[in-house]
Write a structure and sequence with these properties.
Elements (H helix, E strand, L loop, with lengths): L10 H30 L9 H24 L7
Amino acid sequence: MESAGQHGDGTADSVTSTDSVVDRIQEAEGVVERSLAGLRELDGLPVSEHVARFDAVHDALTDALNRADELLSGPSSSGS
């Protein structure tokens, strides 16, 4: 007997999994957009603050790329 919302073919599980992936992709896109917005604000900042802004954007984009890699390949076996 199948439980409510689940099909014998596992469709409900794959839909939930797909929704999770879509949510993670949208979250990563938001991170990238906010990072790029930080670069667009450089004109209003003193030059002495540019390096810190570049570093913050670099870190955020690196994290987004790492998350994208995880989505494509699955979590690493090291647990990180």
